[in-house]
Amino acid sequence: MPFPLGQGEASPASLVATAPLSHSYKWSSIHASLHSATISKAPVIIPDGMGAASLSETVNLRASLLNQPTPVVSSGVHCARISYLVLNKRNIYPVNRNRKTCYSDGLQRKLRTTPLSRTGASRGTSADVLDDSDGDASGRSEVIGADEDEILATRNALAEARARQDAIEKERDLLLEELARSEAKQQEYVATIMRDKEVAIAELEAAKALFNQKLEQSVEEKFNLESKLVLAKQDALELAVQVEKLAEIAFQQATSHILEDAKLKVSAAETAAAEAAYQIEEQILHATEGTIFSIVQQSKIAIEKALAVAESAGDQSTKAMALFTDDMNPLDDILSVQSQNIKLQNDINNLESRLIVSSNEINRLQLELEQAHQRCSAFEHQVSEAEKAFFELQESSKKAALQQEEEVKSFLEKIKKDEVQKERAASKALKVELDAIKAAIEAAKETARFQDDAYMKRCEALERSLRASEAASKTWRQRAEIAEALLMNQRSPCEENESAFYVVNGGRLDFLMDEDSQKWKLLTDGPRRDIPDWMARSLSKFPKFPPRKTDVSEAEISKFMSLDLPKLDEVWSIAKEKPKEGDILVEHVLEKEVIEKKRKALERALQRKTIKWQRTPEEIKLEPGTGTGREIVFQGFNWESWRKRWYLELAAKAADLSRSGITAVWLPPPTESVAPQGYMPSDLYNLNSEYGSEEELKHCIVEMHNQDLLALGDVVLNHRCAHKQSPNGIWNIFGGKLAWGPEAIVCDDPNFQGHGNPSSGDIFHAAPNIDHSQDFVRRDIREWLNWLRNDIGFDGWRLDFVRGFAGEYVKEYIEASNPAFAIGEYWDSLAYEGGNLCYNQDAHRQRIVNWINATGGISSAFDVTTKGILHSALHNQYWRLIDPQGKPTGVMGWWPSRTVTFLENHDTGSTQGHWPFPRDKLTQGYAYILTHPGTPVIFYDHFYDFGLREIISELIESRTRAGIHCRSPVKIYHANNDGYVAQIGETLVLKLGYLDWNPFKEVHLDGSWDKFVDKGSDYQLWLRR
After folding, report:
1. DSSP string, 434-481
2. What one-character-per-residue DSSP string does 523-578 give?
3. Annotated catalytic residue: which of 9, 128, 690, 825?
4. What pLDDT, on a 0 to 100 scale, did the predictor assign at position 492?
5. Which end of the chain has the lower number of beta carbons within 10 A, N or C?
6. What b/e sequence results for 103-133 when a residue is b if at least 16 CB atoms lie within 10 Å of its CB, and e otherwise?
């Protein structure tokens, strides 16, 4: 401990550090040096050999100069090799460089090493040293007088030094805090690096496990494909054998049928000819016999009459002779006889005429007989011709049979060749797929290898960073130890011969460096908080630092040298390190991303190919108006969709729609329109609408096709908005590529003065109605539809307001554009009575069926009848769902394959709400249309906005599992106030309402049934086991 030499002053004086000097100095020089050191605050050199008395005198001298009381120095004090003495304004105490023990009054004290100020280049000229090694106990003291002004100046200088020292202490505290923060951050970086290393190793292990799993799956798939290939070969051979057998049986059956038909035809011709000849002969015989018999009878009657007349004439002649002889007048008798003769003559003439008539009749009958003979000969000729034809038919049938046999043989050979080619193609495809799988495996291996390399390089980088951080930590530790050594006035072995002392920039060195646990405690507890009292007391024991040099020139000429420690921003950090261009790790990452994209594209292609293979012929076969018959349409917009970039938003939902089981998406009207919703089109070839640009539309359609979805375009063919006014101010002149005039508008449109023909349908009053009877109009529309189909990518049409023009024109447009699917909007009012819906809606559905007939049956139509009936039927009036014939009451019951069922669309629902479906009955409505025949349509708002996505997806899955399509039969078991029960197809049963029913209670329902969906009183579904 230092010896107290005064009170009231706290500022330390400069530090003296010298080697022992020669004993030849005299007291005068000592007094002068002491006087000058006291005034200039410079260290004093004390020669070796000065005794205790001399030391005491020197101390008294110092005290007198400082105007302080004289300290008492005990004579019992013995210091071993005291090399330095500190002269303070407050204390004077010896300092031992080699940490020797100083004894005073029997107490052992450990002297602290104190840094000293360096004022010269050598020990001889820089300071004076007080040394009491000679053991002199003279006890003399001298007092050097000083000027009081100089003492005041000295005090002022000491006050300034004290203020600068306070500033240096604050700066030191800041530097200590920065050092603690930097070390904490360094430890945090080390922990982060170790954590990243562990994560990288874990990811590497997971990637290896995933790669092994995928490799096993690929090997299993390979074996499955090989087994499938073998089975396919066997199936192909069996199929070829069965085809040969069937061909032989079909050939035999066909030839036998042909021969039997020919024989039957010949025998039928012969019997017909014989029957005709027999009938003619009978007719001739009957006619001649009747005629001759009538003639004979008439002649007999005439002869009898003539004989009777002759007899009466003979009687009369006898009477006349008697009268004459009796002298009577015979004239009267003669007259009577003459009259009778005349009558007889007339009778004879009549008989002759009848004979002539009968002869004519006989001639006619002879002619008819000859004609009959001619007919018989003609029939015979026909029979002979038939025989010839039969023989020719036999020969031709033989030739045809031989030709057919050859064709069958060639067909079988072709089938065999096709099977061989298919087998080769399948094997090639399998090889290609195996190669692709191998390539994918190799790519996966390569990716895994790249990952391993990347992880190894990352680990190496982490290790390098750890080593760098450890080296930096070691450097910090070394610098801290150096600073601590400097603070404790110790010098490292390499610095024993150096004369430079260093000033530490800051740090709580003892607290950080004494024990590692304290370091971790500092790192875990966070940055430095307020210094507790005990630490402040410990820190107060350290000596103060000299003032910091702020001027560059002053710092250059200063004898103090600061440690050149790096700033916090200059310390390397892996968290802030960014990959550089050309870095191998970055190239590996980019290559990995490319490989991952190729792998995903290959998986999508394989998945689409697998789905295509799994489709049945019924699902692939397309028919006009209904496609495959298994379509499920999604209306992909509502009345407010134009307010967004809708094509981009809808394209992002393509994958989700495909996963849900939807097969076709109905897109909004694509053309430029006066109304933002698109239903008032103007320039048909301008596809930049409120829904998006033409490029965005193409992108949307491509996304639909990538997910195997049909894209249906909403085309408005009934009306079109004009671009210009006519000279009389009527908007009836069109612009764009289809620059039509008033001749393209129907003449009975009351608002637009058209020059065309009368309309073939209803008038739409908001825009000019197009005259489809004009050849140029139909030609332009056909070209436009083909442009949409081929260049833009649409697959089918939704036709707006088809009541405005005849169905024959729709047929022409569909035949020209050949869509996969077409729907017509024929919206007509249902029949109501007293505000209530009528049960019989046959007239309404008949009008829709008539329009479908007008299109030739190649277009479907919305089943507005079923929608209207469901509005009332689902409110405990389920009896409305069955007609008197036991069929569904909508268009579905009459023509299900051309029926498109729906609950709401952009007109009936959305923000327009012209005819909204009951909100609480939506689930029952979708349960009905998604399980019944026809093509169901799902509205966008219901699927995404009303929270019905999961329910609708479940119903779609049940429709798919049961194999329901547009022609599935419906057998209705119950339809009353309590509920509705029907079997659709062979494998699905639906129940709506509160009816207490299950398949086991139905006598006429065969099979075992499992409940698939149970929504309580709303609906229940069963699938056949």
Report:
1. HHHHHHHHHHHHHHHHHHHHHHHHHHHHHHHHHHHHHHHHHHHHHHHH
2. HHH-S--PPPHHHHHHHHTSPPPPPPP-SHHHHHH-S-EE--PPPTTTS--TTT--
3. 825
4. 42
5. C
6. eeeeeeeebbbbbbbbbeeebeebbbbbbbe
Residue whose entry in the numeric block shows the structure tokens 């050598």: 122
Tokens linked to 668: 């909004």
Q: What is the reported pLDDT for 337?
A: 66
Strand, coil or helix: what is 511?
helix
Question: Count of CB atoms within 10 A of residue 16's CB?
Answer: 26
- Cβ(721)–Cβ(682) below 8 Å: yes
Q: What residue has token string 């004898």?
A: 559
C-beta separation of 90 from 10 below 8 A: yes
Residues β-bridged to residue 95: 84
- Residue found under tokens 């100046």: 153
Neighbours of 947 (CB within 10 A): 9
1022: β partners = 989, 1011
Dihedral Cα 403, 405, 411, 416, nearest 10 deg: -140
- What spatial distance separates the first Cα and last Cα of the chain, rounded to whole Å? 102
pLDDT at position 760 is 93
Active site residue 453: no
3-state secondary structure of 558: coil
758, with CB counted inside 10 A (0-12, 13-18, 19+), is: exposed
pLDDT for residue 936: 97
Q: What is the pLDDT of residue 10?
A: 37
Low-confidence residues of the chain: pLDDT under 50: 1-31, 33-56, 59, 61-144, 327-328, 490-517, 519-520, 523, 526-528, 542-546, 548-550, 560, 611-616, 618
Widest CA span of the chain, in angstroms?
250
Query: H or E stretch including 614?
Result: helix 584-614
Q: Are strands 832-833 and 836-837 parallel, antiparallel or unpaired?
A: antiparallel
The DSSP code for 497 is: T
For residue 54, give the nearest of 137, 144, 145 by alpha carbon: 137
C-alpha closest to that of 131 among 26, 44, 39? 44
Strand, coil or helix: what is 935? strand
pLDDT at 261: 66
Residues composing the chain: 1025
Handedness of CA 733, 734, 736, 738 (dihedral sign): negative
CA atoms within 13 A on the CB side of 680: 13
Bridging pattern class, strands 502-503 and 107-110: unpaired
Structure tokens at 1009: 């049934």
Q: Are 800 and 825 in contact (CB under 8 A)?
A: yes
The count of C-alpha atoms lying within 13 angstroms of the C-alpha of 940, restricted to the half-sphere facing its C-beta, is 22
Catalytic choice (800, 883, 904, 954): 800
Residue 789 DSSP label: I
Tokens of 572: 């390397």
Q: What is the pLDDT of residues 215-228, one digit of tens each?
A: 777 777 777 777 77
Cβ atoms of 641 and 668 closer than 8 Å? yes
Q: Which of 749, 748, 732, 806 is nearest to 772 (CA)?
A: 806
- The H-assigned helical ranges of 768-918 are 775-787, 807-817, 842-854, 864-873, 891-894
Would residue 945 show up in a list of annotated catalytic residues for this protein? Answer: no
**List of residues 6+ apart from 170 with CB closer than 8 A:** none
Is residue 606 a contact partner of residue 217, using CB atoms and an 8 Å limit?
no
What is the per-residue pLDDT across 738-767, written as a single tens digit (0 to 9) for each? 999 999 999 998 899 999 999 999 999 999
Nearest CA to 823 among 905, 700, 706? 905
pLDDT recorded at residue 562: 52
Measured distance CA(321)–CA(331) in Å, rounded? 12
* Planar angle of CA 576, 577, 581, nearest 5 degrees: 140
Using DSSP, state whether 992 is helix, strand or coil: strand
Give the C-alpha separation, 833 to 49, whole Å. 139
Structure tokens given for 627 = 């496609």
Report how far residue 527's alpha carbon sits from residue 177's, in angstroms, rounded to the nearest whole number. 8
